Amino acid sequence: MAEGLGEGRGRVASCARALGESGRGPSPSNPRLHSRHGRQLVCAALAVFVLAAPDARATWSIVATDPETLEVGIAGASCIGGVEVIGGLVPGHGVIAAQGITNAAARQRGEELLAAGESPQRVIEEITSDAFDPSAWWSLGSGAPVRQYGVVALGFESAAASYTGRRTLSWAGSEQASAVSVQGNLLAGPEVVAAMLARFEQSRADCRSTLHDRLVEALEAGAKAGGDRRCEPALAALSAFLEVAGPDDPVGAPSLQIVVTPPFEPDTGILTLWRQLFWPERESEYENPVKKLRTMYDEWRQQHVPVGRCSDEGKPEGVP
Q: What pLDDT shows up at residue 196?
Protein backbone atom coordinates (compact mmCIF):
# COMPACT_ATOMS: atom_id res chain seq x y z
CA MET A 1 0.00 0.00 0.00
CA ALA A 2 1.40 3.41 -0.87
CA GLU A 3 0.50 6.91 0.26
CA GLY A 4 1.61 10.09 -1.51
CA LEU A 5 0.52 13.65 -1.06
CA GLY A 6 -2.49 12.72 -3.19
CA GLU A 7 -5.33 15.08 -2.85
CA GLY A 8 -4.56 18.72 -2.17
CA ARG A 9 -0.78 18.95 -2.11
CA GLY A 10 -1.35 22.60 -1.30
CA ARG A 11 0.53 25.70 -2.30
CA VAL A 12 3.64 24.82 -0.32
CA ALA A 13 4.00 21.43 -2.00
CA SER A 14 3.54 23.06 -5.40
CA CYS A 15 6.20 25.58 -4.51
CA ALA A 16 8.52 22.76 -3.48
CA ARG A 17 8.29 21.40 -7.00
CA ALA A 18 9.07 24.83 -8.37
CA LEU A 19 12.22 24.96 -6.25
CA GLY A 20 13.58 22.05 -8.23
CA GLU A 21 13.35 23.95 -11.52
CA SER A 22 16.20 25.82 -13.16
CA GLY A 23 17.72 28.56 -11.03
CA ARG A 24 18.42 30.90 -13.96
CA GLY A 25 18.11 34.56 -13.14
CA PRO A 26 15.54 36.97 -14.61
CA SER A 27 15.99 38.51 -18.00
CA PRO A 28 14.38 41.82 -19.05
CA SER A 29 14.01 40.42 -22.54
CA ASN A 30 12.14 37.37 -21.30
CA PRO A 31 9.10 38.29 -19.16
CA ARG A 32 8.15 34.66 -18.69
CA LEU A 33 11.57 33.85 -17.26
CA HIS A 34 11.37 36.90 -15.03
CA SER A 35 7.95 35.77 -13.79
CA ARG A 36 9.18 32.25 -13.13
CA HIS A 37 12.20 33.55 -11.25
CA GLY A 38 9.96 35.71 -9.10
CA ARG A 39 7.72 32.73 -8.39
CA GLN A 40 10.74 30.69 -7.32
CA LEU A 41 11.78 33.39 -4.87
CA VAL A 42 8.29 33.58 -3.40
CA CYS A 43 8.12 29.80 -3.18
CA ALA A 44 11.50 29.57 -1.54
CA ALA A 45 10.47 32.13 1.05
CA LEU A 46 7.26 30.20 1.68
CA ALA A 47 9.10 26.91 2.04
CA VAL A 48 11.63 28.42 4.39
CA PHE A 49 8.87 29.88 6.53
CA VAL A 50 7.43 26.41 6.99
CA LEU A 51 10.78 24.81 7.75
CA ALA A 52 12.13 27.55 9.96
CA ALA A 53 10.45 26.18 13.07
CA PRO A 54 13.08 24.86 15.53
CA ASP A 55 11.37 21.45 15.67
CA ALA A 56 11.45 20.82 11.90
CA ARG A 57 12.63 17.30 11.10
CA ALA A 58 12.30 16.71 7.37
CA THR A 59 13.58 13.18 6.96
CA TRP A 60 13.09 9.61 5.87
CA SER A 61 12.41 6.81 8.30
CA ILE A 62 11.26 3.23 8.70
CA VAL A 63 9.27 1.76 11.61
CA ALA A 64 8.75 -1.97 12.01
CA THR A 65 7.87 -4.77 14.40
CA ASP A 66 8.86 -8.44 14.53
CA PRO A 67 5.88 -10.56 15.63
CA GLU A 68 8.16 -13.54 16.33
CA THR A 69 10.71 -11.86 18.58
CA LEU A 70 8.25 -9.16 19.73
CA GLU A 71 10.83 -6.48 19.01
CA VAL A 72 9.94 -2.99 17.77
CA GLY A 73 12.31 -0.67 15.96
CA ILE A 74 12.93 2.49 14.00
CA ALA A 75 15.69 3.90 11.82
CA GLY A 76 15.86 7.32 10.22
CA ALA A 77 18.09 9.96 8.66
CA SER A 78 17.92 13.65 7.75
CA CYS A 79 19.96 16.49 6.29
CA ILE A 80 19.94 18.23 9.67
CA GLY A 81 21.17 17.07 13.08
CA GLY A 82 19.14 15.51 15.86
CA VAL A 83 16.92 13.29 13.72
CA GLU A 84 16.56 10.80 16.59
CA VAL A 85 13.90 12.98 18.23
CA ILE A 86 11.32 11.72 15.73
CA GLY A 87 11.18 8.22 17.25
CA GLY A 88 8.88 6.91 19.96
CA LEU A 89 9.33 3.25 20.95
CA VAL A 90 6.92 1.43 23.25
CA PRO A 91 8.51 -1.94 24.11
CA GLY A 92 6.14 -4.86 23.62
CA HIS A 93 3.61 -2.68 21.79
CA GLY A 94 4.76 -0.57 18.85
CA VAL A 95 6.60 2.45 17.50
CA ILE A 96 5.80 5.85 16.01
CA ALA A 97 7.81 8.19 13.81
CA ALA A 98 6.75 11.85 14.07
CA GLN A 99 8.45 13.99 11.44
CA GLY A 100 7.93 16.89 9.05
CA ILE A 101 7.56 19.75 11.50
CA THR A 102 7.67 17.48 14.50
CA ASN A 103 4.94 17.69 17.12
CA ALA A 104 6.47 16.27 20.31
CA ALA A 105 3.06 16.18 22.00
CA ALA A 106 1.71 14.04 19.16
CA ARG A 107 4.63 11.64 19.44
CA GLN A 108 4.05 11.31 23.18
CA ARG A 109 0.31 10.83 22.71
CA GLY A 110 1.02 8.19 20.09
CA GLU A 111 3.21 6.32 22.57
CA GLU A 112 0.42 6.44 25.15
CA LEU A 113 -2.13 5.07 22.70
CA LEU A 114 0.21 2.27 21.60
CA ALA A 115 0.84 1.34 25.23
CA ALA A 116 -2.94 1.13 25.69
CA GLY A 117 -3.17 -1.37 22.82
CA GLU A 118 -4.67 0.94 20.19
CA SER A 119 -4.22 0.25 16.47
CA PRO A 120 -1.86 2.29 14.26
CA GLN A 121 -4.83 3.79 12.41
CA ARG A 122 -6.46 4.85 15.66
CA VAL A 123 -3.22 6.57 16.67
CA ILE A 124 -3.06 8.43 13.35
CA GLU A 125 -6.69 9.49 13.57
CA GLU A 126 -6.30 11.05 17.00
CA ILE A 127 -3.02 12.90 16.57
CA THR A 128 -4.01 14.37 13.20
CA SER A 129 -7.46 15.50 14.31
CA ASP A 130 -8.27 19.21 14.39
CA ALA A 131 -9.09 18.88 18.05
CA PHE A 132 -5.62 17.57 18.91
CA ASP A 133 -3.50 19.50 16.40
CA PRO A 134 -5.37 22.53 15.05
CA SER A 135 -3.97 24.48 12.12
CA ALA A 136 -3.89 28.22 12.77
CA TRP A 137 -5.03 30.27 9.77
CA TRP A 138 -2.13 32.69 10.23
CA SER A 139 0.60 30.03 10.44
CA LEU A 140 1.85 27.77 7.64
CA GLY A 141 3.95 25.87 10.17
CA SER A 142 1.24 24.55 12.47
CA GLY A 143 -1.31 21.77 12.45
CA ALA A 144 -1.54 18.31 10.94
CA PRO A 145 -0.96 19.51 7.34
CA VAL A 146 2.77 20.01 8.10
CA ARG A 147 3.22 16.68 9.93
CA GLN A 148 4.16 13.22 8.76
CA TYR A 149 3.73 10.01 10.77
CA GLY A 150 4.42 6.31 10.50
CA VAL A 151 3.00 3.86 13.06
CA VAL A 152 3.21 0.09 13.52
CA ALA A 153 2.06 -2.11 16.40
CA LEU A 154 2.39 -5.71 17.52
CA GLY A 155 -0.89 -7.52 16.95
CA PHE A 156 -1.72 -5.20 14.04
CA GLU A 157 0.80 -6.52 11.54
CA SER A 158 -1.55 -6.09 8.59
CA ALA A 159 -2.51 -2.56 9.61
CA ALA A 160 0.67 -0.45 9.47
CA ALA A 161 -0.39 3.15 8.97
CA SER A 162 1.04 6.49 7.94
CA TYR A 163 -0.02 10.07 7.34
CA THR A 164 1.53 12.72 5.08
CA GLY A 165 0.18 16.24 5.53
CA ARG A 166 -0.70 18.18 2.41
CA ARG A 167 1.83 20.93 3.27
CA THR A 168 4.85 18.67 3.74
CA LEU A 169 7.46 19.43 1.11
CA SER A 170 7.94 17.32 -1.99
CA TRP A 171 8.80 14.63 -2.54
CA ALA A 172 6.76 13.34 0.36
CA GLY A 173 4.91 10.07 0.82
CA SER A 174 5.06 6.55 2.21
CA GLU A 175 4.74 2.84 1.56
CA GLN A 176 3.64 0.03 3.85
CA ALA A 177 3.80 -3.76 4.04
CA SER A 178 3.11 -6.23 6.82
CA ALA A 179 4.42 -4.82 10.12
CA VAL A 180 6.43 -2.04 8.44
CA SER A 181 5.95 1.53 7.26
CA VAL A 182 8.43 3.71 5.38
CA GLN A 183 7.86 7.46 5.07
CA GLY A 184 9.73 10.59 4.10
CA ASN A 185 9.53 14.19 2.99
CA LEU A 186 11.90 16.53 1.14
CA LEU A 187 13.27 13.41 -0.52
CA ALA A 188 15.13 12.99 -3.78
CA GLY A 189 12.04 11.16 -5.06
CA PRO A 190 9.62 8.28 -4.44
CA GLU A 191 12.42 5.84 -5.21
CA VAL A 192 13.83 6.49 -1.72
CA VAL A 193 10.91 4.91 0.16
CA ALA A 194 10.41 2.28 -2.55
CA ALA A 195 14.04 1.15 -2.27
CA MET A 196 13.85 1.02 1.52
CA LEU A 197 10.75 -1.12 1.59
CA ALA A 198 12.05 -3.44 -1.13
CA ARG A 199 15.30 -4.01 0.75
CA PHE A 200 13.49 -4.60 4.04
CA GLU A 201 11.25 -7.20 2.45
CA GLN A 202 14.16 -8.87 0.68
CA SER A 203 16.11 -9.13 3.93
CA ARG A 204 13.05 -10.40 5.80
CA ALA A 205 13.04 -13.47 3.55
CA ASP A 206 16.35 -14.56 5.14
CA CYS A 207 15.59 -16.22 8.48
CA ARG A 208 19.07 -15.32 9.73
CA SER A 209 18.33 -11.61 9.54
CA THR A 210 17.18 -9.77 12.64
CA LEU A 211 14.95 -6.74 12.86
CA HIS A 212 18.13 -4.75 13.52
CA ASP A 213 19.68 -6.03 10.29
CA ARG A 214 16.62 -5.23 8.22
CA LEU A 215 16.33 -1.68 9.51
CA VAL A 216 19.99 -0.90 8.81
CA GLU A 217 19.80 -2.37 5.32
CA ALA A 218 16.64 -0.40 4.57
CA LEU A 219 18.28 2.83 5.71
CA GLU A 220 21.28 2.12 3.48
CA ALA A 221 18.96 1.52 0.53
CA GLY A 222 17.27 4.87 1.12
CA ALA A 223 20.62 6.65 1.21
CA LYS A 224 21.74 4.92 -1.97
CA ALA A 225 18.53 6.10 -3.67
CA GLY A 226 19.30 9.73 -2.86
CA GLY A 227 17.91 10.37 0.63
CA ASP A 228 17.20 13.95 1.69
CA ARG A 229 17.46 16.29 -1.31
CA ARG A 230 19.05 19.03 0.81
CA CYS A 231 22.20 16.89 0.83
CA GLU A 232 24.15 15.72 -2.20
CA PRO A 233 23.08 12.19 -3.25
CA ALA A 234 26.48 10.81 -2.23
CA LEU A 235 25.96 12.25 1.26
CA ALA A 236 22.18 11.74 1.56
CA ALA A 237 21.97 12.96 5.18
CA LEU A 238 23.79 14.69 8.06
CA SER A 239 22.43 12.57 10.91
CA ALA A 240 21.07 9.05 11.32
CA PHE A 241 19.88 6.75 14.07
CA LEU A 242 18.74 3.21 14.86
CA GLU A 243 16.73 2.02 17.86
CA VAL A 244 15.35 -1.44 18.62
CA ALA A 245 13.59 -2.50 21.82
CA GLY A 246 12.81 -5.99 23.06
CA PRO A 247 9.53 -6.75 24.86
CA ASP A 248 11.18 -6.54 28.29
CA ASP A 249 13.19 -3.36 27.71
CA PRO A 250 12.29 -0.41 29.93
CA VAL A 251 10.62 2.52 28.21
CA GLY A 252 13.32 4.94 27.13
CA ALA A 253 16.10 2.35 27.34
CA PRO A 254 16.06 0.23 24.16
CA SER A 255 18.50 -2.66 23.93
CA LEU A 256 20.02 -1.08 20.81
CA GLN A 257 20.43 2.64 20.28
CA ILE A 258 22.89 4.15 17.81
CA VAL A 259 22.86 7.85 17.00
CA VAL A 260 25.17 9.53 14.48
CA THR A 261 25.38 13.31 14.45
CA PRO A 262 27.65 15.57 12.39
CA PRO A 263 30.78 17.00 14.07
CA PHE A 264 29.36 20.33 13.03
CA GLU A 265 26.19 21.19 11.21
CA PRO A 266 24.96 24.28 9.41
CA ASP A 267 23.06 26.88 11.33
CA THR A 268 19.37 26.06 11.10
CA GLY A 269 18.36 29.64 10.38
CA ILE A 270 16.41 30.87 7.38
CA LEU A 271 19.44 31.64 5.21
CA THR A 272 20.87 28.13 5.66
CA LEU A 273 17.57 26.48 4.83
CA TRP A 274 17.24 28.67 1.73
CA ARG A 275 20.76 27.71 0.65
CA GLN A 276 20.19 23.99 1.20
CA LEU A 277 17.20 23.97 -1.12
CA PHE A 278 19.31 25.35 -3.98
CA TRP A 279 22.82 24.20 -3.06
CA PRO A 280 22.72 20.90 -1.14
CA GLU A 281 25.26 20.01 1.55
CA ARG A 282 28.41 18.51 0.00
CA GLU A 283 29.93 15.13 0.74
CA SER A 284 33.38 16.71 0.89
CA GLU A 285 32.40 18.59 4.06
CA TYR A 286 30.78 15.79 6.09
CA GLU A 287 31.10 12.10 6.87
CA ASN A 288 28.22 10.02 5.53
CA PRO A 289 26.17 9.26 8.68
CA VAL A 290 24.51 6.16 7.27
CA LYS A 291 27.88 4.60 6.47
CA LYS A 292 29.13 5.49 9.95
CA LEU A 293 25.99 3.99 11.48
CA ARG A 294 26.66 0.76 9.58
CA THR A 295 30.20 0.62 11.01
CA MET A 296 28.95 1.21 14.54
CA TYR A 297 26.20 -1.36 14.09
CA ASP A 298 28.63 -4.00 12.83
CA GLU A 299 30.76 -3.44 15.94
CA TRP A 300 27.69 -3.82 18.15
CA ARG A 301 26.59 -6.93 16.26
CA GLN A 302 29.90 -8.68 16.96
CA GLN A 303 29.25 -8.35 20.68
CA HIS A 304 25.63 -9.56 20.69
CA VAL A 305 24.10 -12.91 19.83
CA PRO A 306 21.33 -12.27 17.31
CA VAL A 307 17.78 -13.40 17.91
CA GLY A 308 17.17 -15.19 14.64
CA ARG A 309 14.13 -16.92 13.19
CA CYS A 310 15.81 -20.00 11.72
CA SER A 311 14.93 -23.52 12.74
CA ASP A 312 17.68 -25.59 14.40
CA GLU A 313 18.50 -27.17 11.05
CA GLY A 314 18.77 -23.84 9.30
CA LYS A 315 20.87 -21.99 11.89
CA PRO A 316 24.34 -20.97 10.81
CA GLU A 317 27.25 -22.67 12.55
CA GLY A 318 28.13 -21.19 15.92
CA VAL A 319 24.68 -19.73 16.66
CA PRO A 320 23.02 -21.41 19.69
A: 96
